[in-house]
Amino acid sequence: MSRLRGWLPAAAYVVVWLLLSAVAAAGFFLTGERTVDVASHEARVTADFSGEVTVRTGPVLPDVRKDSGSFVGVEIELGKTDATSVEQLVARYAAIGSNPDAPIEKVETAVRDMAVDAIARGLALGIIPLLVWRLLGERRRREVVDALPTKRGVVGLLVVALVVIGLTAPWRGLGAASNQQPERWVPLSTFVGPSVELPEELADVEVLGPAGGGVQRLVTSAIDSYDEGTEFYRQAAEDAAELELRQPEERETVVLLLSDRHDNVGMDQVARAIADRGGATAVFDAGDDTSTGEKWEAFSLDSLDEAFEDYDRWAVTGNHDHGTFVRSYLGDLGWTYFDDGEVVDGPGDTRILGADDPRSSGLGNWRDETGLTFEELRSRLAEATCDAEEDGDRVDTLLVHDRNLGDEALERGCVDLVVGGHTHTQFGPEPIRGSNGELGYEYTVGTAGGAAYAIALGTKLRRPAGFALITYRDGEPVGIQSVGVLTTGRFTVDPYVELEY
Q1: What's the mean pLDDT in 100-119?
Q2: What is the DSSP letter of 336?
Q3: What is the distance between the alpha carbons of residues 118 and 126, in angstroms, rounded to a whole number?
Q4: Residue 418 pLDDT more than 50?
Q5: What is the number of other CB atoms lying within 10 angstroms of the CB of residue 263?
Q6: Residues 400, 418: contact at Cβ < 8 Å?
Q7: What is the dihedral of CA 99, 105, 108, 109, to 10 degrees?
Q8: Which of 45, 51, 46 is closest to 69 using CA atoms?
Q9: What is the C-alpha R_g of the chain?
């Protein structure tokens, strides 16, 4: 009994600490915020306990909300974007919405980060009163307790409370709420009218905002695009999972090669299904994941990363991936990019070298060379591969955006396989006999996004898409199988081509 009495004060301190920490953590959580790139916007994410996900789109389009499935709610306030028209913005929403897993994961990560931060800060803040209480000593604690019922004690408590709140709470425009009118949310089905058949996942969505004819037509068009795109890519992914593809044998490693996605996030689930069906465990990304390389296209990179997060991943940037954003963003997510002339470990005990495309291009027919020219980089890649050959570290795969960057390396016989994209059409595998007698191959994969131009966002494919499954055995590439997706959603599977040396 005496031992139990000895533990009671300690238990009381722990209970009080946890209670104070919980109150403080809730305050930090409800007043915290994060800024993330969502749906081609710079968005502010805040949390509450409403149990709803609310998206504030701005003054033109209606706000939307949906049940979150838990007591935690999220408000996403969409900020600046580079969209040049409302129609373009709505088209982006529809395309992104057809494959929403990556944006959802990004918001969930932001909320989890806010919660962890709030708990840590709450635990730290909650223990301060207890430490102060202990440090005061028994005599001072008795004096404080005796002073609490007095006017001076009450004022002191209020001052301390206001100081703590003022130092810890990031104030967000308090005072304006009293002038706001109650929000009048209506079901999406009411907003668009009875003539529009909503997809099942949109049945419980509510909207708030302008309901003019133009806005209503835009929203209706977005719903149609969303429904058509969702169904097209969902069915394509299901069909891909049933394809008759060559299966890897013992000691073989299969890699999916893709290129020129151009923001078509809908095809990512199809690419993953093809990779899984073909027994792949790694992926080569030959670039042009975006149309301009701008930050608003982070949604496309998030989608690609989400689709292949458990694969080994190597990548280069294409001529449309302007600047450093794409490389740094995917690099931070764990994709392997290449330093100048550095040969690294590749799939299946192979050695691989890669290089970003030195060009940048807009949406027209022109090209603008920056930094190294195309020809200079081609020569440097040939030197790097041949130097590695002389050192007994032969390059098994050269990954580039445009296979022409590897021409000189193949002509000198210093590489087994050069792979790329860029042309949006499949070519090869084509054998090339080098000047040293060594045989190598070049191969170009089609556009993974079905891109006719630099932007592939849309309800379905604009042109046939293409992928390739590269097989490695005993430290070298030994075969390629090409897989195509027609604009109708049907698949074409080429025979497996063995690479003989």
Answers
A1: 82
A2: B
A3: 12
A4: yes
A5: 28
A6: yes
A7: -160
A8: 51
A9: 29
